[in-house]
Amino acid sequence: MLYLAENIRQLSPHVRLQLAFSQLLVLLPFVFLLPPQISLLIFLAPFWVFTRLATNKNSQLNRFVIVGICILVSALVFLQYNTFRGKDAGVALITAMYSLKILESWRYRDFNLLITLSFFISAMAFLFSQSFLLVGYIFVVYGRLLHTLTKGNAHQSSQVSWRQSSKLILYAIPIIAVLFVFFPRLSEPLWRMPGQLAAGTGLSDSMTPGDINALNLLDDPAFRVKVADGQMIPAERRYWRGLVFENFNGLTWQRDPLRESIAADFKFDIQNAIQYTVTYEASQQPWLVGLDVPILFNGDSFAYSDGTIRSPKKIRQRVRYQALSVSGYSLEKELSPIVREMNLALPEEGNTQARQWAIEQRSLVDSDADFIAFLMRHINQEPYFYTLTPPIMNQEMVDDFWFNRRSGFCEHYASSVAFILRAANIPARVVTGYHGGEYNELGEYYLVRQWDAHAWVEYWQADTGWQRLDPTAAIATFRIDDALLAEVGERGLLFDQMPDADPLSFGLFEYWQQWSDSVNNFWNEWVIDFSSDTQVDIFNWLNLSKMPRSLVYILVLATVALMIFILSRRLIFRSERVDSIAKSYRLFLRKLRRRDIHKRDNEGPDAFMHRVLQRLPEQREQLLLIHQQYMNLRYRSERIDAAALKRFKRSVAQF
Amino acid sequence: MSLLAAIKVHISRRVLHWHSKRSGLGNEVQLNHKTIYILPTRYGLLMLGITILMAVGATNYQSNLIFIATFACLTIGLMGILLTFNNLIYIQFSLHPVRPIFAGENARLIISATAKKQHIAVNLGFKNSVNQTLDVTARAEQRVELSETFMTRGVHPVPAVKVSSQYPFGFFNAWSWLLFANKVIVYPAPIEPPTEQTSSSGDGNELSDNYRAGIEDFYGLKAYQPGELMSRIHWKSFAREKGLQTKLFVDYISDPDVFDFDHFDSAATEMRLSYLTYLVVQANRQSRPFGIKLPQQTIAIGSGEDHLHKCLYALATFGKSSN
What we know:
The complex is a heterodimer of chains A (655) and B (323). Chain A is an alpha+beta fold. Helix content of chain A is 47%, strand content 13%. A six-stranded antiparallel beta sheet of chain A has the order 9-12-6-2-17-16, covered by helices on one side. Chain A has a five-stranded antiparallel beta sheet with strand order 8-3-15-18-19. In chain A, a hairpin with a 5-residue loop joins strand 10 and strand 11 (309-310). Chain A is elongated and about 115 Å long. Chains A and B meet through strand 1, helix 5, helix 6, helix 7 and helix 16 of A and helix 2, helix 3, strand 6 and strand 7 of B.
């Protein structure tokens, strides 16, 4: 066959069809990752070419039309993002241009270029998703790309099996694993990429309840907690402290800057301590969480006297830390005058109705404790509603909520109750964090999601220190928004009246959910969060840290080279196709080889059988049967007779 | 020819020379580790670029999954080197004897390829010519025919045959040169001489010197040698007491031609050789015996394919140091 240079060799319609199909496979993940309009845009060209070729129609376009399409598509991408910069717009533009290339791919040069680029385009999907399913998919796509390349580089007439490409990908996995674990990598980016991080969903720096008229119910994981020595945390204790707000200006609760200057003094009894590891998702905030009240933790974070933990940097990536909490621990048994003042301070004006109401009600009872019990009863018996879509409240947020609207979510309740307590001369503050978390039996950890975000109140009493008060929990169950009932299972722990999940109803679906989150957690821990720190740990674990690092890398490189060498010897990119008759006959030959009878290359089946019969006269009948069946199948019948083939296979198997 | 092209030609000559020292000559060439060279194609370089870009991206986005994709590409690339290399190694090529040609014709070079394993999409070809692609099946002979034009007479070495393959991924090009010991004999191009100069001797002259011992015509007498036929003894001479004499008979050859180089004094050497070639070929086609006379070499009259080749070979190598 003549071999033409690739820049003049034309692609056959069949190869072009394969190319369009590979492109569609490469682009498929982006359908789920990019906005639908853009997905449609990038799918259009390969899909059009694919359908035209599949129906034997002309898929040639005028050069000017192609240029026009390119400009149009770029314009549409620009319209969508208003820019070409940044991750999303950049990826959209690159994938769109990549998809349009098929329109003018007629030669082998274009074919090679497109397939080679496909390796890159596929990997861009990881900018949007880190799912292990996606990794599996990309491996499949890589196998397919290699197969397409192999076909393109072989004769057009050759049969190229996809097995070799798949095998290569499978064989590559251990090599990738070695490189992944040992390849030197930087702990810091070389430079910061645009649009690298999406907006965080973690705890906010401040709380303005009146502003919010819908709480997001993201089921994204916020963090996972694994308790040491398998201790369980009772449901009512699963309050995860995030931030403490002590400063209220009538609208917004904030951290009081004075708090940072107050030294922490934790004394605790180790007996009641719970030690646990938190895997905290990226939040774009420096605050970390701990089981109420976190006391000790490792790392370079800083603990404040109000029980909040702050990392020196914003959490831009998932972090893992260990912490220690003591059950029933109360902070600040003795309140310094500054802190007392801080936690009694009210804005100079506003919410007068609530202030008066608080003073009046306080004067009706004997003690602070009675007042607090009254407040809880009040919330439970008066028509207070829990809803995730409260009306927006005006300037006088506490008055408006407490006396008029009477519906809101945890932030409204916490904010109002803290205000009322302060008005009644009880030091009080708002704590935000998470409440609840579902236990994963398989992974033995608690998964806390974004929708578990919560706010509650802490008030101070002379002998007990700060005590938790969760006003939301006091709301009567029947006053929970109907729309919320669907979600209540998830947020159920908010309401003490909600029965615990029946362990018998632990169905297949829940099991699957737990299993998938468990896999996800493993995946996160060992693949996605793998970092230069983990590498160091592995080096230490393997006792390699004493060896000079360069020697280690040389060893690793040698290992990888050896693996590649061995694997490449095992891979022969054959284009041979062996039918089932030949397969069985080969098995027969192998069985004879074991008896040291070797078929010579220049020997036909008849001559060979003649020789075999001389060597194995006692199996004459069996051998003759196999021979006759083979000859009939191979040389006498035009089409393979399935029944005869089956008989032949059986005879060979029995031999 | 520009300077750059000259340098290129020089370098490629040096490379071939260097290669020939490594591989040696033979009519059977088996590719081995020493004689196969491999370099990335531009798609291989593109793949390398992509892999580096992905590694930078993975570092910048701190994305381990992009690292996985990067290592996958790296592994595919490294495997590609060995797979392409393995696709050439241990193929045995042999060149069949090359039929001599006349200058300006294409020499047909038939090359057989055999191997123990299967090798796919192996390209064979001379420099600057269209390549042939073949699949080498395990333990079966595959033949390719290459052709190359030779413009000058002489004994030429077979030009280096470039074997290359980019299979399976096209990221790497593995190649080698096959240097065969066989020679290509190129006769001068036959050119018909002007009519007045066609032959050195008179046409069809019965009394010419071209004869050989025969039985047809009486030629003369010569002294008897013991063992000669009694019937040939010229008894009349014996009767005249001239001693025993034998009758000598000869057969006159109808048109015996000895083509003489010096006959065409007006033409240049190459032209004369072309004329002689033409005459020799014509004579052979008409089955006439012929001989040639060159300044340092004379080939006696004869006929047949071997004789033809002998004459043409003499013409092809005339004035060239033959070896």
